[in-house]
Amino acid sequence: MDHWDPALTDGLAANRPVILLDNTGVAGSSGQTPDTVGAQADNAAAFIHALGLTHVDVLGFSIGGYVAQALALRHPELVRRLVLVGTKPRAGDDRDRHPDVNYVATRNEVLSLEDFRFLFFVPSQTSQAAGERFWERRHQRTMDVDPPTSKQSM
Asked: Are 75 and 103 part of one and the same domain?
């Protein structure tokens, strides 16, 4: 949850309830992260049911976009609206993906500013500056911060 930009989540929460989900085994959630996106989607559906919700609007970013798509396909009765950001369809074209993405995402136990800038911001001066502003917002909260995500989850 701490990887979400508070400018985005606070903006969304201004007009609606927002629930951020760390899927099973990710950051503060217990258990072992499932090996498939489909299983992660099923866990998200179980979470939605456990909250007593009958349908939700889902925003999926990056790998969460893969899970959001699987959730909509596997549990369509739960998904009212689906918003996909910075993601691709399953088995999408990865020709534009940098070959070092997996290495950078897993090389440090705790992702650094440089890791985040590489993974989520393009090399332009404007984008890198936006990455630094995000990093500052991301670290404003100092209580109850998420523990690092395990290498298995990454």
From this structure: no
